[in-house]
Amino acid sequence: MADPIRLLLADDHAVVRSGLRLLLEAQPDMVIIGEAENGADAIRRTAELRPDVVLMDIAMPGMNGIEATRRIKADSPRTAVLALTMYEDDQYFFEMLRAGAAGYVPKRAAPDELASAIRAVSRGDVFLYPSLAGRLVQDYLLRRDVEEHEPPADDLTPREQEVLTLIAQGLSNGEIGEQLVISAKTVDRHRENIMRKVNLHNRVDLVKYALRKGLIDLEE
Questions:
Q1: Closest Cα to residue 128, out of 146, 104, 156, 112?
Q2: In this predicted model, what pLDDT tens digit does every residue of 87-121 receive, in sequence order?
Q3: Which DSSP letter does residue 217 get?
Q4: 207 and 100 in a common domain
Q5: Does the entry feature the keyword DNA-binding, yes or no (predicted)?
Q6: Last residue of a domain, one of 85, 112, 138
Q7: pLDDT value of residue 201
Q8: In what order do the strands lie in the sheet with 80-85?
Q9: Fewer CB within 10 Å: N-end or C-end of the chain?
């Protein structure tokens, strides 16, 4: 018989952890080896216990589940993180996936769906709740359509790429000018040229464009 799946429960509500323990300990192939009540505690307990799967809530006091997931995956890459949360909006969904979560299940899911998700991520697969998986496909198709029709970064001069990168990093025109040893007025002229060439009209869209083209990454 295969070893049971070793689980760590990370949720700031004791009643939720108790309910999960009752539910999952009834599964013959699962065992609860620890609990955590916040993100920092989840990181510490994961380092101590090396669970196969961490069931991670998102909204917890102190460090949230997104940052905890990012750190757990950096320190314990073999541990799978499964988001189990009440949040079903796109922001949290995509942030958890970018942080390294292998699955995302809403707390309204049926018990057998949660058990299936745990088994899937424990063997290295990805599990996305059906309604959320559809959003991932839609996001991919939208990104693909945008990328197919937008100008490549190579259309920008090297100086414009430098300016765009610094804009995307949140620097003001004055700060960019100081870093590149040019005037703020010259920076503004470069920004206008960039927007015209890539057909974008505000800073948020420029940041997204810089991300898609690899000029900056999410860790910066």
A1: 104
A2: 777 678 778 888 899 988 989 889 999 999 999 99
A3: -
A4: no
A5: yes
A6: 138
A7: 77
A8: 30-36, 5-10, 53-56, 80-85, 103-106, 127-128
A9: N
